[in-house]
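Entry for the shared binder. Reason: the reviewer on the internal report wants the predicted structure included alongside the sequence.
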Amino acid sequence: MRKEERRRFLTLVLALLTLLVFGTVTVAAEEETGTSPTTTETTTAVEETTTAPAEVTATSITKGIGKGSDGNWYYFTDGKVDTSKNTIAEGLVDGTTGWWLIRDGVVARTTTTVAENEHGWWFCKNGQVDFSFTGFASNEYGVWRIEKGKVNFKYSDIIETTINGTKGWWYIYNGKVRTNETTVAQNKFGWWYVKNGMVDFTYTGVARNQYGWWRIENGKVNFNYNGLAMNEHGWWLLKGGKVNFDYTGLYPNDAGWWLLQKGKVNFSYTGNYDYYGTTYSLSGGKVTGAPGKRIIYLTFDDGPYQYTDQLLGILAKYHVPATFFVTSAYPSYAYDITLERQQGHMVAVHTYTHNYATIYSSDSAYWNDFNRMNNVIKQRTGTTTSLFRFPGGSSNTVSRSYSSGIMSRLSTQATQKGYQYFDWNVMSGDAGGVTSTSGCYNNMVNGCKYMNVSVVLCHDVKGYSVNAIEPFIQWAQSNGYAFMPLCRTSPTAHQSISN
């Protein structure tokens, strides 16, 4: 037999043997090179596109992962490549047993991604599930929290890590890094403003989540905030750090007494507004006065103390605003500073210690005491204030014993620092010789009778003085007076400085 005939005979015998063993036979296209068909792979950043040749068959398995007749690895059904198969399946590939990523029937051995089978979503590294991996990995749907190779859909947190090359504090919800989400979210350290999935520590304003709108300061929710705050949509009233959309009425800050409608300052309102039976005039949403009424500014020094709760109840009963010049003399009552602000009163600095020898010993000693008290106010209300009253008033002479000329210097410095101080032009007398409710009442009535604008000095640390407030309010409201809180543009009732 000639050489060429022998070659063809041997080829035929080999084909017959293959048919007997495997039931199918693959005949490669006849080329002079004699090479078999191969798959074509295109690898992207995370995914591998692999197409199995239609004529590839299994060499040793009829169902599952096996080696094809072309030497590559596939998922077979009935001995043929199952191109509909996209899953993660267990099998042996090149001597390694594991769970392997299948794409269109092909074992995607160069792909690193997050993929799914009937048991969950898994991190596949070079086509194989990596059960040792804990961290973050991505696929075409996003970035996921992986624990021991599997996506943990119960994982929700804000943690410091690097995502897509950017280090920061990232928000993960239900196992997914929320890279396209802007919201307010929680971790063990608090609630945070999240912008495009990452905490924005530069943001101060008002932002929302599914629970409401919140006061944010340096990226974090300030639950102590009680007052007005701004965002790109306007100025809002917050209580406990949350916008109070239920509130319609008047509310003060350092800049004025404002009309709010559904929690938002209405700067477009100009005209008269009836507030619990008293008509006030407004311009640009701000109260400017009360037509036909004389004005009383009730002020209370030295608290809060044990009588402050009683006083707040009286003021609420008659819907009367007041201004509290507060101290830290009775720290167990500091919670009332929060209540004062929440109930629509102004809170201003008086002194932290009320110790004349300390605060008036030097300029720096005074401002140190001032700042300590302002910090307490911030802790209790969420914001500092620019309003204050000197202990003893600006005209006090007791300061001469500690520093000559200090009141002149401090009053000038206050203006330079952007602060506004207030004295008074009516006294209840409770800081002096008056020790009765009737005495306080008579002093306030007689003092206001001849004033168009009265800034009344009282002390909420004196029970008999607080007891005089209700009858005084009744007298004032029945005699043509209206009450207002102090703000930067209010009458200051300054007295002559004597030191």
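Summary line for the report: The two ends are 133 Å apart (CA to CA).
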